[in-house]
Design goal:
Length: 313
Amino acid sequence: MNILITGGTGYIGTVLVEESVKAGHNTYVLTRNREKSEALEKQGVKVIVGDILQDGQWQQKINDMDAVIHLAAPPTWGKKVTKKVALSYADGHLELTKRLFAAIDPKHLKRLIFVGGTSYFGDSGNEAPRTESFQAEPKGWGPYISPSIKYAKEKIAEGYPASIVFPAQIYGPSSWMEQLFFQPLYTNKPITSLKGYSPYFSPIHIEDCARALLHLIEKGEIGEDYIISDLQPLKSTVFRDEIIKLMGVRNPKFREVPRWLCQLLLGPVLTEYATAHTNFSSKKLQETGFKFRYPTYIEGLPQVVDAWLKLQS
Ligand SMILES: NC(=O)c1ccc[n+]([C@@H]2O[C@H](COP(=O)([O-])OP(=O)(O)OC[C@H]3O[C@@H](n4cnc5c(N)ncnc54)[C@H](OP(=O)(O)O)[C@@H]3O)[C@@H](O)[C@H]2O)c1
């Protein structure tokens, strides 16, 4: 299958590209950065250099594809997110979405997998894992991706062959896992958490997230939403303690930050994101026949910790 991945150079995209090549697909990546081409081409990937926000060759190429997985998004991680930053993120996100749909000819493309996030649904509460039918009340990043999700839903209603997917917390050997856990534990610095909060958390191993996106191209239904998480939502402190155990740290240091200080340091969006429960079910994904490589964090975390430690040696 010819598959174009937008955002194929990012956190999820890098692993998705590997899984797509491994699965034998003719894999194309759209990137703005010509310098990333060489490494991708060595992997057997075809690179399209282009910016979704500008006209270019990508607009023709997109309709030669069987499927597009859309991950491209403005950057989010690693800085304070004020309301102003978040509003500009929302504008950027929506602009990418509108230009993507404008380039697609729904008669040519077979499937678009449009990637959102479970913050679109908001705080799940801690009672039972919620499904795709949970009434959306976006929290954290949610309000800032919801204009894009609403736009994608309108386009689907007009006949675009898309499914919208909502990954929960994607864990892998880099990004937030490295920043929040691996680096501090490795350097004997405190792990920071929010005082008085241990919200539910629905992890998904980054390889399984990538595999689920590929799986849904063929097994998902047009117009349907799919949550991507593993089989076991859990409290975030349980997840953290398992990482500490696997890293072999006997006397970890902790720094508890009160909510008001978190607001000051990270801003209201990330504070809301960090305090909301993410207790979601991937039952619908499983009903499409998807099989996890790492069904729960118990299988997945050792692989991720090992991979990160190998990168340090
Ligand atoms: N990370 C998570 O835990 C998580 C969880 C749930 C959902 N999600 C969603 O999954 C998506 C991908 O997340 P991520 O963490 O992998 O993102 P990321 O690492 O920040 O990567 C973003 C990608 O977008 C591309 N991009 C940005 N602007 C572009 C433009 N104008 N034209 C073409 N490409 C552009 C960048 O490519 P170049 O710089 O190479 O051009 C980069 O590869 C996002 O929608 C995010 O909200 C993420």
